[in-house]
Amino acid sequence: ANCMGARATLSSSQNLPVEQSVKAAFDSAAVTTLTGNSSTPKFKAKELSQVFWHYASLGVSPPQKLWLEMDSAARRLAPFQSPMDVSLVLWACATLDLKPSLETWLAMERRLADLVKRGFVGSGPGGVPSERLVRKEGDDVGRTRDTTLPRSSQSQRYTQPQQKRSGDSVLEWQQVSNLVWSYAKLRVFPDRGTKNALDDAFHRLAHEKPESITSQDTSMLLWGYVTLGFMPGVGDDNVRNFRTLFDAVDRHANVFKPDELTNALWCLAVWRALEGSASAPFPKSYNAMWQRLAVLESTDFSTSDGVLIAHHAATVHNELLTGVDELPVMKQSLIIAAETAWKTQSTQHSDPSNVSGSQGRVGAVLSKIGFKYQSELELFGGRGFFQASQTVDFFLPDWNVVVEYDGPHHFYDVVSDPKRARFHNGGLVDAFALNAHTNDLDHAFTPNAHTTNIDPGVTKNVNTRLRDLFLAKKENVQKVVSLPWWEMRLVKHGEQEKWLEGKVGKAIDEVKASREGKGVEAIRGVNDVAIREVNDVATEKGVDSSFASGSENPNAGNKQSLCRRWIDACSVSQRIKLEVELLGADDDARWRVVRAAAGRDATKVRAALRGEIETTGE
């Protein structure tokens, strides 16, 4: 474990590549240590965390067999992990984008909550020796106690090396920042117990050691909290903790590394855009940090991501914030590098193979309904370092309506339900029942800190919320229809056409109302929308529109009654087309048109009525 840690350190600090033969030897030795018989020495918790750190620092995922053994060992050793061990294992998982197994993650969460509850934060619990964290660790992993040494020597052997690392005895800022960053990187919201533990640790450190937050800790905490959509604590604690973090930003504004600087600017602009100026005041150094960025060249950054984030931060500042200063002019090299990184990212995202099957299903249903649309369309509007744009799933040009299928990656995961089983067994209905103020599925969970704690799985993540805000600002977009994957999954396959037609039709109604200069409530329902358009056409044609407006001749017979019922059962778009086609037609012609329309229909919801029409015949 020490050799692996040292090799990873040399690789990162001296830019020394790890030879393939050395990597293979490390992999083999780690597997042997983890899978050997009872006489084989086993990793202790600290040593195992070094193995995790080794692979993450090198940016190399271990072989699948080794990863499973590492995961199993982390679960077994969780009760004996130090704060540093817990944070390093989760940090490594997040860095490698490899989630631990459910059992392992829950075990580490329990360990974290236990450490905080027992007071192993900051100055630590009064009179409690740090050795109790690791004293019995060797027994648990099957090591034979060396009875030739006095007990005090054994304790010294286990604990003294551990105490040389900050965070081995108590949670410090580094461990809290690693943990918050790890959850955010994996897009997983901590459960209530873990969130409360992290809040408590932050609050105690803010009280005891507010000045000891490093620039790296500040950057990681800020990004983690903004990405997860909450700030630590509630009420007065939240305000104090918020101020502690922003004070740290002010202290480090001039010493942030370039990548940390752009990260901080993005976080502050996003938090202000999402929460508003009252809830998210800027640190005093916000404008000064932009001035500092304006003198940096692209070569000052260690990654292209840092350059690209600067452009995104500028776009948020320019398009979504009000009452802010105009940004200074950036160096040309920074602008060119940001645009190059943006084009590379856009090319990757525009790959047709990245379109999910569910998104393809939405497109097929839209076509079947008869909505004209463009898919994967790039919409321009807004400006960062250069003109900004967004690619949307579907764009309906006749109405300037955007339709977005929001798959699972648009929402947060939770540790306790990685496969989202609650969305398949009625749990979603129970979750919505918690929100009594509305029955509207689109708005039942307004994405904010409070609703995220109800069910993160139905809360849009920060990137999706930003997408919606940017789309709402574009002049060529009048309405955005969001199709959450969990809502679509609750709709039977045969009923998805009606469901989608209702959601998109509602948006079109609102666009029509807006274009007419009236509130949507003045339209008097969906039928009246169709009637108004038909009457307009009737006036232009100079024909009687009494049929279209709903008046029915009681002597018209069963066929005309069936015509009226069929028209009423149709969707908005179908109804408009059908009634325009019926204008000026006599009863026989009307019946033939309706009967032909029914013959082309295959929806289950109109099956019974379709049967009556077919039975009636010519």
Low-confidence stretches: 127-164, 429-453, 520-556
Strand order of the largest sheet: 2-3-4-6
Which class of secondary structure composition applies to the elements? Answer: mainly alpha
Shape: globular
Measured as a percent range, the helix fraction is 55-70%
How far is the N terminus from the C terminus? 85 Å
Mean pLDDT: 79
Sheet of most strands:
4 strands, mixed
Radius of gyration: 31 Å
DSSP summary: helix tally: 27
User: What proportion strand?
Assistant: 5-15%
The counted number of beta strands is 6
Briefly summarize what is shown.
The chain is mainly α and 618 residues long.
Can you tell me about this structure?
Mean pLDDT is 79; it is low at 127-164, 429-453 and 520-556. The protein has 27 helices and six strands. The strands form two sheets. A four-stranded mixed β-sheet has the order 2-3-4-6, with helices on both faces. A two-stranded parallel sheet has the order 1-5. The chain has helices at residues 2-14, 20-35, 45-58, 64-77, 83-96, 102-117, 137-140, 151-159, 173-185, 192-208, 215-228, 235-252, 258-279, 286-293, 304-320, 332-349, 357-369, 427-433, 449-452, 462-473, 485-490, 496-515, 526-541, 557-569, 572-582, 587-600, 607-616, and strands at residues 188-189, 374-383, 387-396, 401-406, 413-414, 479-484. Helix 6 (102-117) packs parallel to helix 10 (192-208). It is globular and about 90 Å long. With 618 residues, it is mainly α.
